[in-house]
Amino acid sequence: MSKFHQSIFSIILLLISPMIAKAAESPTPTATPPIQVIAPEENCIANVGESLEIMIIAQDGLDIVSVSALCDAKGIGMTQTKPYTIKWDTSNYSPGDYTIRVFAYLKSGEKLSAKPVVVSLVASKGLSAMTTAPLAVVKEGTPVMLQTTAKMVSGETAKGSSVRYKVIRDVVGSSGQVLIPYGASAYGKVITSTPRGMFGKAGKIEFNIESVQGAGETLIPLRASQDATGTSNGGAVVVTTLFLSVLGVFINGRDAVIPEGTMITAFVDHDTPIARPLPPNPGGSKSGSLEMITILSPADKASIREGSKVTIACNIFPPTDVATVKIFLNDELLNEQNNAPRSFVWDTSKYGPGEYQIYMEASFNNGKVVKSSPIKVTVRRKVPF
Prior knowledge:
This protein has 1 helix and 34 strands. By secondary structure, the chain is mostly beta strands. It has 3 domains: about 35-125, Immunoglobulins (Immunoglobulin-like, Sandwich), CATH 2.60.40.10; about 135-290, Lipocalin (Beta Barrel); about 290-385, Immunoglobulin-like (Sandwich).
C-alpha cells in the first residue's frame, strides 16, 4: 500500500472510530412480545375484595379470536373484543401472592402467552382471611351440552361469522348450585366454509365453540371443534367428530350442512371460578329433551335418479347410549341396526319412480324411543340415452 493510500485509510478510520464505539455501547434492541399485560403491574399490592382490571395489549396484525386470563391455573375470564380487558373479582380470594397468566388464541390455532405477573393480595381493614366464602368452580373437562340455534351450509355461511348455541342442560356444582344454567348462550365462529365445486368436489364447513355464559355473567372458555365434509359424487361416507364426542355419520348431498338443533358436547377448557352461582333448583336440574335423532342424508326434497344407491345417514344424540336404530320407508321397516355405523345404503333399483317418505327411530338404553322428522325424496325415472 502506498503512503498516500495509508494516509487516506488513517483519516477514514479516525472518522468512523467514534461511530463504531457508540454502536458497540448501544444495547441490542429487544423484540416486543406479541401480547403484554400492562395492568396490574408486576408485584403490585391490592386489597382482598377489590375488583382489578387485567389489561392486555397485542401487536397489530394478529388475528386474535379470544384472550383469557388465569390466576394460579384457575380461569378468571375471557374477552373477544378490543381493548382486551378482563375484570378480576378478588373478593373470594385469601391474602397471598397470585400469578396472573394471559393467553391469546389465534384463528390459525396458535396459542400465545404473555409474561406472567405476580400480584399480592392483602387483607383490608376489618377483613380476615377466614371471612372469604368458598369459591364455586366449574372444573376443567366438565361437559356442557349444547344445541345449534341456526342451520349452517358450506359456502352459504360465511367464514368468520358468529355461531350461537344454547345450553340444554344445567351444569351443577358439588353443592347443588347451578354454575351454567339451562338456556344460557354459548358462542363460536365459522373457521372454514368452502362451497361444493365442480367434478363432484365436496363442500366443507368447520366451526368452533369458544365460550359459554355461566352464572353471574361469567364467560367460561370451552374447547371443541367440529369438521363436517359433504359427500362427493363417489358416495363416500364421512364421519363427523367433535373433540372427544362422536356425533355420527354425516352426509348431505355435495354440501356440508349442520342442521339447526344439532346437539353437541363441548368441554370446559380450564377451572373457572363462578363468583355468583345460582341456587339449586327445587325440582332438580333443568334440561331439554336430550335424546334426539336427525336425518342428515339424503336431503329433504332431494331428487334421486332411478337405480342409484343412496346412503341414509343420521345424527343421534347422545351417541353412546343407543340400543337400536330403525329406518322406515313409507311407514314400512326398511332396515334395523344394533351397532354402528348408523347408516344404510338404499338401492333404489328395487323401487319404481315416485315420491317416498323416510323417517328413522332410535331406541335408547334408558327405554326411551324417539323419532326423527320425516323427509321426502323423489325417485326420477331413468332417461335412456
